[in-house]
Amino acid sequence: MVPRRSMEGDRNYTTVAMFVLLGLSDEKEVQSILFPIFLGIYLVTLIWNLGLIILIRMDSHLHTPMYLFLSFLSFIDICYSSSATPRMLSDFLKMKKTISFISCATQYFVGSWMAHAECYLLAAMAYDRYVAIGRPLQYSAIMAPGLCQMMVAGSYGSGFLGSIVQTVPCFRLYFCGPNIIPTFFCDITHIISLSCSNPFISQMILFLESIFVGFSSFLVILLSYGFIASSILKISSFKGSAKAFNTCASHLAVVTIFYGTGLSVYLHPSSSHSEKQNKVLSVFYVILIPMLNPLIYSLRNKEIKEALKRMVKRATHLPQ
């Protein structure tokens, strides 16, 4: 902490220049076990998401709106995981786990930006699945490249603005005393609780903005799946219904995991007993979901498997 002159008088106060991240555990034995585990998870996250982006870009058969959105979702997952995981990995090797005020604000801003963008992008992907199932004959006309690009740009742009709205008021609060964050990343709810000034306005901004983003995007998803369910029920053959449902099963799984874990993290009652549970949920939300998303979309996706086979054949110069 460094001295700071109060605007209200001549007394010197101290303002926080560093935060201390307690991490997942303070036991060296546990940290030595967790380091290779989370390093492996992070490498898988980077390799799988980056590989999916490259595959979609290189294979013309995957140049469709659904895979365009998926490639940008993979980019979000890379950035989201990278906002917290490298810091956590380096902290496993340190005795003193400190992060500067500016670095903490930057970490939260990037993570919040990506989380906001993912909410909007998942909503855009739900609408894409509705058009593909509910209005297949008009799909190419409705989901034109221009509209898809606008949806992606809108997701990233809205996420950027939403993150600014959250980050700036919270990090303009006055911090003068406790600087310990009881987790492995700069979580805004913990940071606000450390403020020495009245956090009411910042808390209200954070609450209202989160409700607006989460509710609006989730409402689009619910409406889209309502129309999807209605369209599937109109299909007479069981095989046709199963095929239609299969086209949106991966997206539905990703949405369920993303929103289910997010709600568990931020609506879970805070108490000393639940602190370890909150850490586990945060690990799942921040670190594991970016790894799971490409796996969910890839493992049962025939088009991606076929594209991968074509890419391998081209790389090894085998005949098609």
TrEMBL record:
InterPro entries listed in its UniProt record: GPCR_Rhodpsn, GPCR_Rhodpsn_7TM, Olfact_rcpt
Database matches in Pfam families: 7tm_4
Subcellular location as annotated: Cell membrane; Membrane
Keywords noted in UniProt: Cell membrane, G-protein coupled receptor, Membrane, Olfaction, Receptor, Sensory transduction, Transducer, Transmembrane, Transmembrane helix
Major place of residence: membrane
Highest taxon, organism lineage: Eukaryota
Membrane topology according to the record: Multi-pass membrane protein
Chain ranges of the G-protein coupled receptors family 1 profile domain: 48-297
Ranges that cross the membrane: 33-56, 62-80, 101-127, 139-161, 173-192, 204-228, 249-268, 280-299
Family recorded in the similarity comment: Belongs to the G-protein coupled receptor 1 family.
Job of this protein: Putative odorant or sperm cell receptor.
Protein's name according to its UniProt entry: Olfactory receptor
Organism: Ceratotherium simum simum (Southern white rhinoceros)
Gene symbol of the encoding locus: LOC101405626
